[in-house]
Amino acid sequence: MSDFTVIMPCYIVNEELAKLTENAIQSFQQTHLIIIDNASPVGGGYLRFEADTYIRNQENLGYAKAVNQGLKLANTEYVAIANNDIRVSPNWKEVAKEVLSEKDVYSCHFRMTDYDTPFEYGNSVIYRGKERWCHGSFYVIKGEPLLLDESYLNSYDDWDLFHRVRMSGKKQAYTDKACFQHKHSTTQQLIPEREENDRKNKEYFREKWGDYAENLFAKEFPEQMSEEYQKGWTI
């Protein structure tokens, strides 16, 4: 049995997303795959066939609720949270084990590239100092997971989670020893209510934490905010 679980929420609405999801699944390799199907109108049969554990919701419950459903079912030592528009490099599991062996590390985040960029590896593991590049599209955790706040609908749940991680004294580790390709926000771009959801989520974060997510992050990491974001992904 694998010591890795991958939790992948899915809402597949067209053949492009179906193909991206197939590519993602093929890249995970020998993991326990939990698929939370948020009432996809396309590809439900394929998802059921590929998943080791398959949950189909009768309606789209959103990303945070879907991830939490998976977290409550996962029972392996390592758990990855994955978008379904990614492809991960073949070495991601061994790199995650190395990074997460360090004390007080909550999550391991890999270098992200555009979807058609070939995999390329560096030699860096940074335990503090690259939090701005510790995204929520694909990451691995070890130990007791923190659930996402389900009041967010498809955005800002990652800002909230990682704010809580840092408040607890845990680290978000970044490494370029492994990487993944990302077809950025493929599902989100198809949601008509996206801008309105983002606005509501942004205001909810402010009400919860006393300031906007971007402002809190800038106060916490002013040096990182002064760097050019795209250059931060280079090896």
Give a brief description.
With about 240 residues, the chain is of the alpha/beta class. It has eight helices and nine strands.
Could you walk me through the main structural features you see in this protein, from its secondary elements to its overall organization?
With 235 residues, this protein is α/β, with parallel strands linked by helices. The protein contains 8 helices and 9 strands. Strand 2, helix 2 and strand 3 form a beta-alpha-beta unit. Strands 1, 2, 3, 4, 5, 6, 7, 8 and 9 form a 9-stranded mixed beta sheet that branches. It is 34% helix and 23% strand. The chain has a single domain, classed as Spore Coat Polysaccharide Biosynthesis Protein SpsA, Chain A.
What distinguishing features does this structure have?
235 residues; alpha/beta; Spore Coat Polysaccharide Biosynthesis Protein SpsA, Chain A; nine-stranded mixed sheet; 23% strand; globular
Percent of residues in β-strands: 15-25%
Q: Sheet with the most strands?
A: 9 strands, mixed
Terminal residue distance: 34 Å
Structural class by SSE content: alpha/beta
Write the CATH architecture name.
Answer: Alpha-Beta Complex
CATH overall fold name: Spore Coat Polysaccharide Biosynthesis Protein SpsA, Chain A
Annotated CATH homologous superfamily: Spore Coat Polysaccharide Biosynthesis Protein SpsA, Chain A
Oligomer: single chain
Order of helices and strands: EHEHEHEEHEEEHEHHH
Low-confidence stretches: none
Helix content: 25-40%
Give the helix tally. 8
Domain tally:
1
Q: Which CATH first-tier class would you pick?
A: Alpha Beta
Round the Cα radius of gyration to an integer and report it: 17 Å
Q: Using DSSP, what is the number of strands?
A: 9
How would you describe the shape? globular
Mean pLDDT: 95
